[in-house]
Design brief:
The structure holds 2 protein chains of 2 kinds. Chain A is built from no helices and 11 strands. In chain A, a hairpin with a 6-residue loop joins strand 7 and strand 8. Chain B is mainly β. Chain B contains no helices and 9 strands. Classes of the chains: A mainly beta, B mainly beta. At the A-B interface, strand 4, strand 5, strand 9 and strand 10 of A face strand 4 of B.
């Protein structure tokens, strides 16, 4: 497709489980971002990749959260030992060299 | 990044112009003003950006005051599909620029 693709669209898991969320950016976009959005709030920055490397991971809330982008395209956000407070919509975006961000539809994570 | 202030909600009649204000009194000289919107259950969508000149595209117009401390996003003929949360963000313009979203303005377009 032409846009940013995120899978799964919905994920329900139990407290303490491991979760992976996938983002397939727009072809040719070198910059990729992960954001998290809680109900009623604006998106909150988590991590930014330029190519394969994480250029800024200052938004990751703690060491249970980790993201990779091994080939500079698809990225995976990994959450270990999930907690109920991790429940949110996780948004991925990729950008043109000029910086306009294109967002996916998000992955809604529910931790029971 | 400079902080922005927006009204939490606004109403607009269908077919009329929607004027969404944003205050950014601490904006620095090299920071741009961006507008994104988020329709329910979708990811944010880029609308427009500007530095100091007014800008217009197929979606909207952006009016920035001369002192750059505030701006207004104008949707010239609002439709029901324009109902969304509109975010005003100020930041540097380049790839790798992390955008900081505030609470935005919830625009309700009414028939």
């Amino acid at each position: 497709g032409a846009g940013v693709s995120q899978t799964p669209s919905n994920k329900v898991t139990e407290k303490g489980k491991y979760v992976e969320l996938r983002c397939d950016p727009i072809s040719g976009h070198t910059a990729l971002y992960w954001y998290r959005q809680s109900l009623g709030q604006g998106p909150e920055f988590l991590i930014y990749f330029q190519g394969t490397g994480a250029a800024d991971d200052s938004g990751l809330p703690n060491d249970r959260f980790f993201a990779v982008r091994p080939e500079g395209s698809v990225s995976t956000l990994k959450i270990q030992r999930t907690e109920r407070g991790d429940s949110a919509v996780y948004l991925c975006a990729s950008s043109t060299p000029a910086g306009e961000l294109f967002f996916g539809e998000g992955s809604r994570l529910t931790v029971l | 990044d400079a902080k922005t202030t927006q009204p939490p909600s606004m109403d607009c009649a269908e077919g009329r112009a929607a004027n969404l204000p944003c205050n950014h009194s601490t904006i620095s000289g090299n920071e741009y003003v961006y507008w994104y919107r988020q329709i329910h259950s979708q990811g944010p969508q880029y609308i427009i950006h500007g530095l100091k000149n007014n800008e217009t595209n197929e979606m909207a117009s952006l009016i920035i005051t001369e002192d750059r401390k505030s701006s207004t996003l104008i949707l010239p003929h609002a439709t029901l599909r324009d109902t969304a949360v509109y975010y005003c963000i100020v930041s540097l313009w380049n790839a790798g620029n992390m955008l900081t979203f505030g609470g935005g303005t919830r625009l309700m377009v009414k028939p």
